[in-house]
Design brief:
The chain has 295 residues and is an alpha+beta fold. It has 10 helices and 9 strands.
Length: 295
């Protein structure tokens, strides 16, 4: 049991999972639900919890994926015991199988202007999802794992040539340099954090080199796609660049702003142990009045 969990159990203070505070009464209700309806699977439980606790996206839809992640962490902390998963290993991290679909292809030797406009294909089908996962697993240094929260994934093409894979997802909960740059207070951050989108994966395939062009095109496209999917307009993009691996040159070339660096803690470092790698923080405003929209 973590220190945060033990503190909640003894003091009755709320505990935070996936950006939401759960009161001791809500935790008791979740346990009672699971005890009274043991045949509910994990997906059904997440829908019931979202409905009962009014855990909704800004467009009114349930935050089921965040709820499922939160309940997995509750189980990890010893607060609940989930039913066995119906498929897979239940933690969302089964490694994608590598196939010929992600094998290196012939080098595309064309100047950037010759491949414009780029074809952004949102990942909406099982086939595209499997390909995206496989590419990230094979070529991205972080390997594949599910993206958190609201998200859009893209495959990028020039004709039949596959150029890149990008992923955009939920923003980090607290980032001091980012929050100072915006100038919001804690309440404003809690209310409006959903309007920041994290560029959580950026993979230029080894046989291509169009990084800054792709980033610029993605920034122009994402706002409309996000609004269409989730019903609200994002105001700011963020990303984190491992300073020991990369220089961030393509982000700077695409007019992203470097605003500081992380303290070497991951999203779940509640004990402030500093076990993660240090990363440079880059931001890209999607609207000239982004500060007003966020605060």
């Amino acid at each position: 049991m973590t220190a945060q969990t033990a503190n909640t159990e003894t003091t009755g203070k709320p505990i935070r999972y996936c950006g939401r505070l759960f009161t001791i009464q809500e935790m008791d209700w979740i346990r009672r639900l699971m005890a009274s309806e043991p045949k509910l699977n994990r997906a059904q439980l997440s829908r019931r919890v979202c409905s009962e606790l009014h855990w909704l996206r800004p467009d009114g839809r349930s935050k089921e994926m965040s709820c499922r992640v939160a309940m997995l962490r509750m189980q990890r902390d010893g607060l609940i015991t989930l039913p066995r998963p119906e498929k897979g290993n239940g933690n969302g991290r089964r490694r994608p199988r590598l196939t010929a679909a992600s094998d290196p292809k012939e080098l595309l030797s064309l100047p950037a202007r010759a491949v414009m406009p780029l074809e952004f294909r949102p990942v909406d089908t099982p086939g595209d999802s499997s390909l995206w996962n496989e590419l990230i697993e094979r070529y991205h240094y972080l390997k594949y794992k599910p993206l958190p929260g609201a998200q859009i994934r893209y495959l990028l093409f020039h004709g039949s040539y596959l150029l890149a894979a990008l992923g955009f997802s939920a923003a980090a909960w607290k980032v001091a340099p980012r929050d100072r740059f915006i100038g919001w207070d804690d309440g404003q951050r809690r209310r409006n954090l959903h309007r920041i989108v994290n560029n959580s994966r950026f993979l230029i395939l080894p046989w291509r080199n169009l990084a800054s062009c792709i980033l610029a095109a993605a920034a122009k496209r994402l706002g409309n796609d996000w609004t269409e999917r989730y019903g609200y307009e994002p105001a700011l993009l963020e990303t984190f660049v491992d300073r020991d691996r990369f220089q961030g040159t393509c982000y700077r070339a695409a007019n992203w702003l470097r605003v500081g660096e992380t303290k070497g803690r991951g999203k779940l470092d509640r004990q402030h142990r500093g076990l993660s790698r240090f990363k440079h923080i880059y931001l890209y405003p999607l609207h000239k009045h982004f500060r007003q929209k966020l605060s």
